[in-house]
Amino acid sequence: MLHDLTMIAARPSAFATPTRRQLLGTTAFVALTAGLLTTTMSRFAVAAATFDDAQKMMLLRVARDIYPHETLLDNAPYQAVVDAILTEADKDEKVAKMMSDGLTDLDKRADAVYKSKYVDVKNPLEREGLLRQIELTDWFQKVRGGLLFGLYNNKALYPKFGYDGSSWEHGGWINDPSFGKVEWL
Amino acid sequence: MAATFDQNDDSVVVIVGSGAGGGTMANELAQKGIKSVVLEAGKTLSLEDIENDEWAMFLKISWLDKRYSGGTWHGHINHPNLPAWIVKGLGGSTVHWAGVSLRYQPHEFKMKTTTGGVPGANVLDWPISYDELKPYYDKAELKMGTTGDVTGMPHLPWSSDFKVLAEGARRIGYSKLISGPMSINSVERDGRPACQQIGFCMQGCKIGAKWSTLYTELPRAVDTGNCEIRTNCMVLQIEHDKSGKVTGVVYADKDGKQQRQKARAVLVAGNSIESPRLLLNSASSKFPDGLANSSGQVGRNYMSHMTGGVYAVMPGKVFQNRGTQVAGIVRDESHHDDKRGFVGGYTLEKLTLGLGFLSAFMVPGPTGWGHKLTSALEKYDQTSGVWICGEDLPQEINNIELHKTEKDQYGLPVPIVNKTDHPNDTNMRNHAYAQMGKIYDSLGAIEVWNLPAYPASHNMGTNRMSEKAKDGVVNKWGQTHDIKNLFVSDGSQFTTSASCNPTLTIVALAIRQAEYVADQMKKGAI
What we know:
The complex is a heterodimer of chains A (185) and B (526). Chain A contains ten helices and no strands. By secondary structure, chain A is mainly α. The termini of chain A are far apart. Chain B has one domain: FAD/NAD(P)-binding domain. In chain B, helix 1 packs parallel to helix 7, helix 1 packs parallel to helix 12 (503-522) and helix 6 packs across helix 11 (423-442). The interface between A and B is large, with 62 and 69 residues.
């Protein structure tokens, strides 16, 4: 995977690295974020000096609200994506500012509608409504892109969704008792 | 046995691309003793490279060179740099295809006659008929190992997911429910094993049960000693002499160095984006609008099928991923009957998406998130879905355009792929959504999701076949109207798109074209 990503980065001319805006929300962007996730899997493992605890918790809340699986998934896979972004923010001021400004803006919007901080808005649908207002922003799409890969292309989580993943190692499904069976029709 | 040809050897045929068109041409010509050099832009692939992982394979085999989505289809916003989902690698998109091998219906070669023409569309009859192509369809099925009467190979067993679709279809009165024809071995055949229902057909068949030029036509062509394959070689330009005859190609090798291969004839089979792009990029003082473009039709009439998807959460387990990706089809709407509000027809094809792709495509683009989506994803094993494959009308505005300023890593103008629905497409898609809604409702579906088109894997029409030179780019043999020793051998020849996946027809046309090329060479006409 990384080989291909490197290949894209190594192209000689300026067009070779599409701008973030070109990539956001697109299939290619989702693919490119794959590399981010493998490196950081621990709970706030990095210094993330740029962000205080309240901001970090808010980012985790936003992540859980983007792809909510309240009973299915614990914090860990969301945390991994948030950590990757915090690590990047530590190294890149632009990312830090984008994320920090985004969180501040989201709190302002929560305050305007509910007289409350975002994380204190109790109803998840109301939080989703607030996020819908800012869904096309770069910082939101950065979190969403990371999650799309971190949650749904995460082999450790496949069984929770009832997805089997790779099957060739065990000879496919042709001899599995479930093949061709429908119990409920 | 592998041959090596000198770059100055002008007796060889140069084939651009190694997929369904190019790979088949290479082997067909090689078997007839005709020497060829295949120039493949992508890298060498083998079964070792194949994984059952959607995104890993997407990154490994997709054509990801810079492209733009244009026109008004949603991909202009949601897939701005991925208009098409095709392969850059040895074997081309035969690595990625699902194996569906439908023949065009006789009327689908005659859409102008059938419809009387459609306002706003550039509809034309093919210069060949079903009867003319029928023997080549037979040969293609024998070559590819297509389940059904010609090979005698039984269709594949029905997966649980196809049983669900078929039962719903039966309940609304449909009867054309079938798990073939598929070019996937249902029994061991031609040195390849029987399908093990692994799934992930479109990530490349791990065991080679699905036909692909990667492990059939290409190695067989090389084994004759008549064919040399050069991978990582991107053709930049086709050259010609004063008389207008093509003389060879200039290509960038794996190190980006420019090379020149001389040729007796050039066969272009780089898919419907790259093939017209190459002809346009080969413009010269003699051919200022690009090669073979006296009609102005090179790059136009781009078709990708009228498509969309419908996915539904069922009341019980479906296990959509346990079996071939397109495990069966419904053909009750593939006829022509304009009383439905559109011309042409469509095929409903059960399509598995894994969790990675379903999460990305159920609501594609930046708005694809939120509780409604995630509650559906939590019922992945209860989810069933189809892909809609319908006649897409040729329109001049749907074209491959060259970017005015932006160049790719080879220094070539970046292609812009313009696609806008004709009202016929919209009507047909809505009809298909409604019919699928009825099917899933009849099964007690908990929820039904309509998905817009994916980035196109079926790309057709941009060098179309026509009887008259003014209407298209190539004649009924795929030979360009303007230049005798320049041929188009891929789906860009298609005059119209039909309700059928294109690969079988590309292969049938290639087998037929190879006979013609051999004959013309023997006669000294080219």
